[in-house]
C-alpha cells in the first residue's frame, strides 16, 4: 500500500513576552489611584504589570478613611518573589508611608539595577497625608538617589526641598533643588499652578530640559493623575525607551486620561485609563 504523503505542520512561533514593569505602592479601594491605577496604565501601554503592595487604604471619591501599612518583611518578600523569578525591566514606586518602608524599598531598588520611577507621594488628591513626617529624610537621602526619574508635584517639591513654586519662573529652581537630592532626572509637575491655558511640566537632568505643555482641561475628576504619569513613564522605560521619549508619551496619555475623567461617588472621580479604547 503506497504511503500517504505527510502533511507539513506549521510550528507556531513562541509567545512574545511583553516587558515586565513592577509597581511598589499602596492599594486604592476606589480603583482610581495607587496599585489599581498603575496596573491599568501598564496594560494600556502593553507591558506586563506586577505589584508589591505596601499599604491598604479605605478610600473613595471623598477621601481616605483609613490606612494600614504592611510589614516591611511582607513588602520585601513580595518584591524578591517577583524580581528573583520573573525579573523586571522597570520599577515604579508610589505610596511608602513609613521611614522603614522607604529605607527597605530604596535598598531593593539599588540591588535591582532596573530603571526606577519614584513618585514621592506625600498627600492624596483630597489632602489626606500619606507620608509620615519621619519618612521625609529617608525619601531625600535614600529613595531619591535611587531614582532614574522623580515625579514630584508642587506640594511635594515644597515638602522635600522647601522651594515653593508660584509660577513657571520658579519651576527651574524647583527642578534643580530636587536634582540635588540625587535622581538622574526630575519631572516637576505644574498641574497645580493657578491660571494659564496649559498644564505645564518641566523635565530636567540639570543640563537638558524639556517643557511639556498640554491644554488644561477643566475637569475636576483627576484622581490618580500622579500615579498614572509615573506608571506610564515606567512602562516606557521598561519597553526600552529613553527618558525623554517615555516622559513625552506619558504626558500625552495622561492628558487624554484627564480630559476623559468621569464622576464616581459624591466627590472627585478618576481619570480614564482606558480612554484610548473608548
Task: Characterise this structure.
- α1 (34-44) links the parallel β1 (20-28) and β2.
- The protein has eight helices and nine strands.
- The chain has 278 residues and is an alpha/beta fold.
- It has a nine-stranded mixed beta sheet, sandwiched between helices.
- The termini are far apart.
- It has helices spanning 34-44, 72-85, 99-112, 136-143, 154-161, 171-179, 225-238, 243-259, and strands at residues 20-28, 48-60, 63-69, 90-93, 116-118, 149-150, 185-189, 198-204, 209-215.
- The mean pLDDT is 93.
- 34% of the residues lie in helices and 21% in strands.
Mean pLDDT: 93
Question: Segments where pLDDT lies below 50 for 5+ residues?
Answer: none
The largest beta-sheet arranges its strands as 3-2-1-4-5-6-7-8-9
Number of strands: 9
Key words describing this protein structure:
single chain, 278 residues, alpha/beta, nine-stranded mixed β-sheet, 34% helix
List the helices and strands and how they pair.
Blueprint: E1 20-28, H1 34-44, E2 48-60, E3 63-69, H2 72-85, E4 90-93, H3 99-112, E5 116-118, H4 136-143, E6 149-150, H5 154-161, H6 171-179, E7 185-189, E8 198-204, E9 209-215, H7 225-238, H8 243-259
Parallel strand pairs: 1-2, 1-4, 4-5, 5-6, 6-7
Antiparallel strand pairs: 2-3, 7-8, 8-9
Helix pairs in contact: 1-7, 2-3, 3-4, 5-6, 7-8
Amino acid at each position: 500500500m503506497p504511503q500517504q504523503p505527510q502533511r507539513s505542520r506549521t510550528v507556531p512561533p513562541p509567545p512574545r513576552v511583553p516587558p515586565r514593569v513592577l509597581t511598589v505602592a499602596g492599594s486604592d479601594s476606589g480603583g482610581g489611584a495607587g496599585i489599581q491605577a498603575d496596573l491599568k496604565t501598564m496594560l494600556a501601554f502593553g507591558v506586563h504589570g506586577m505589584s508589591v503592595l505596601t499599604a491598604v487604604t479605605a478610600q473613595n471619591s471623598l477621601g481616605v478613611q483609613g490606612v494600614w501599612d504592611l510589614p516591611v518583611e511582607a513588602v520585601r518578600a513580595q518584591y524578591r518573589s517577583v524580581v528573583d523569578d520573573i525579573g523586571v525591566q522597570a520599577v515604579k514606586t508610589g505610596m511608602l508611608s513609613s521611614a522603614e518602608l522607604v529605607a527597605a524599598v530604596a535598598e531593593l531598588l539599588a540591588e535591582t539595577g532596573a530603571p526606577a520611577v519614584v513618585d514621592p507621594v506625600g498627600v492624596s488628591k483630597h489632602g489626606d497625608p500619606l507620608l509620615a513626617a519621619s519618612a521625609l529624610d529617608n525619601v531625600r537621602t535614600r529613595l531619591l538617589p535611587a531614582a532614574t526619574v522623580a515625579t514630584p508635584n508642587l506640594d511635594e517639591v515644597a515638602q522635600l526641598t522647601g522651594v515653593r513654586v508660584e509660577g513657571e519662573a520658579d519651576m527651574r529652581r524647583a527642578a534643580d533643588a530636587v536634582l540635588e537630592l540625587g535622581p538622574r532626572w526630575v519631572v516637576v509637575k505644574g498641574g497645580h499652578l493657578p491660571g494659564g491655558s496649559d498644564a505645564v511640566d518641566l523635565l530636567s537632568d540639570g543640563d537638558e530640559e524639556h517643557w511639556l505643555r498640554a491644554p488644561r482641561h477643566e475637569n475636576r475628576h483627576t484622581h490618580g493623575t500622579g500615579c498614572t504619569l509615573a506608571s506610564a513613564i515606567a512602562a516606557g522605560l521598561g519597553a526600552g525607551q529613553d527618558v525623554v521619549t517615555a516622559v513625552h508619551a506619558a504626558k500625552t496619555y495622561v492628558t487624554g486620561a484627564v480630559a476623559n475623567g468621569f464622576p464616581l461617588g459624591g466627590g472627585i472621580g478618576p481619570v480614564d485609563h482606558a480612554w484610548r479604547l473608548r
